[in-house]
Design a protein that fits this description.
The protein is an alpha+beta fold. Helices cover 62% and strands 15% of the residues.
């Protein structure tokens, strides 16, 4: 599900900013972009994101700006003292009288060091970064909840269409067998009259019973109705705990619903039932497209 979240917090360690964007994807993919100073924490960031977001392509951007004093480069006093000692030895030679320029000394190799790393506590830093990432994902969820609410309404509407059409099929199914029996009797009666023959009623009933068994869709209707109820329960959160992903579960239920609908269409040789089956398939297909974007 698409969405965007942002969070920024300032503390003793500096300022951490997190921006997270998600786009639709059937699986999960995380594309983190972190500053060099946070490179060692990248795997932890991805694991945390994966535990909170279960579906979609996630673009995660994390930056850390240290406090001013920690951002300054360090002067290696020992290296500077070594240079000064060597200059003092040179000054001892009366023939040479070099002047000591501190600005020049600072440009010599090894005098200016990198940012002080010994002040960094990775555990403390990760705790701070984790807090900001969780806050950004909370802001992301608020935006996605709005979109998810609209998608849920659309799915519920399609569920109602499937239920209504399925109810019509349930009513028509018994009449389809009776209609076949009447057509069969007329055909047989016409043929028998043409050839001056008779047929036993029991034989006719046996043929009708064979047809009725072949086109019986009561089990498929019951299973489809059960899947529809299960879909509605999952969508409404009756079977899900907070933050439990439901997209894959709904996708699987829709696959089963489509399979049962196909069976109904192939077994029930009735034009009116076929028209309802087409509408059910259209509704399920619309639902499948939406469910692909649900976490």
């Amino acid at each position: 599900m698409t969405g965007q979240g942002h969070a920024s917090e300032q503390a003793e360690l500096g300022t951490v900013s997190v921006e997270i964007r998600t786009v639709n994807n059937r699986g999960f993919k995380c594309a983190p972009r972190v500053s060099d100073s946070l490179a060692t924490l990248e795997s932890k960031m991805e694991a945390l994101t994966r535990s909170l977001i279960h579906r979609g392509t996630v673009h995660l951007t994390v930056s850390w700006r240290r406090v001013a004093v920690d951002s300054l480069p360090l002067v290696d006093v020992k290296a500077l003292q070594a240079y000064l000692d060597q200059l003092a030895e040179v000054q001892a030679d009366k023939a040479l009288n070099p002047t000591v320029d501190l600005a020049t000394l600072m440009t010599l190799p090894g005098v200016i060091g990198s940012v002080r790393e010994d002040r960094r506590d990775d555990d403390q830093l990760w705790s701070f970064v984790e807090q900001v990432i969780r806050l950004a994902i909370m802001n992301l969820d608020e935006m996605r909840l709005t979109e998810g609410g609209r998608m849920g309404e659309t799915l519920s509407s399609d569920c109602a269409i499937v239920a209504e059409r399925l109810g019509r099929v349930r009513e028509i199914a018994p009449r389809a067998v009776e209609s076949y029996r009447s057509r069969l009797e007329l055909k047989i009666q016409r043929v028998l009259e043409e050839h001056d023959q008779q047929v036993q009623t029991v034989d006719l009933l046996r043929e009708v019973q064979i047809y009725a068994d072949r086109v019986d869709i009561s089990e498929e209707i019951t299973r489809l109705d059960s899947h529809l109820q299960m879909f509605d329960d999952v969508l409404g959160g009756k079977e899900a705990e907070l933050r439990e992903p439901m997209g894959r579960k709904l996708d699987f239920i829709l696959q089963e619903m489509f399979r049962e609908t196909n069976t109904i269409g192939s077994k029930a040789a009735d034009a009116e039932i076929s028209s309802h089956v087409v509408e059910i398939k259209c509704a399920i297909e619309r639902m499948r497209e939406l469910v692909q974007n649900l976490e």
